[in-house]
Amino acid sequence: MAEVAFDFKKFIDETKATLLTPADYFSVMSKTGGFAEPLIKAVIYGFVAALINFLWIGLSLGAVGGAFGGMIGGGVGVMGLVMSVIGSIIGLFIGGAIVLVISAICGGSTDYESNVRVTASLMAISPVSAIFGFLNGFSLWLGGLVSIAVSLYGLWLLYNALTKALGGKEGPAKVISIILAAIPVLMIISGLLCMKAVSTLPDQMMKNIPAEDQEEMKKALEEATKGLEQMGKELQKEGKSE
Question: Where are the domains of the chain?
């Protein structure tokens, strides 16, 4: 079937419909027309999500912010955007295969093109997830809870896609959605608990060290810090003299 020119206005309207009225959108979405349109949609979603993530990192508001935020955002920003676009393309076709398997389990369509088109529409959740990424800069727990909420909403979109667009049965679709919902919840909560444990580990270790040794360690760290600062100044002087 001949490919048609990409309609950006239609893309915006479909994105809004996917996120705001998924049941209505997936009931009427086009499941044919080639792979060009879903490919472009995936690239746009991936690029926008990556751009937002690098913005938060550059502002030290992302999960990898802090002292390295500006360096990461500026140093590998372009390469990161390119890799994100490539990842979106790969994710589109792999995701299409995964959705096809899930659809088959639910008794829905096993047409690969239809499942790829559904996957491209589901990728609209990526920029939404990226928008809330700044919350990690304020509180990892708040960011984690919002990530769980976004993931669950993404699974709600998947459920509607399975039952409305791909013709899957509601019963199996609900069961699979519930099973899949447990995965991000457990992963995010366990990750947050591990980070909390790691953050309190130094304090717990210091409690087991005698007070005299703690003072010596602090002095040693201060001296090491001063030494590094002095070394940095000397390197700067040498650079200027050259």
Answer: 11-202, 209-239
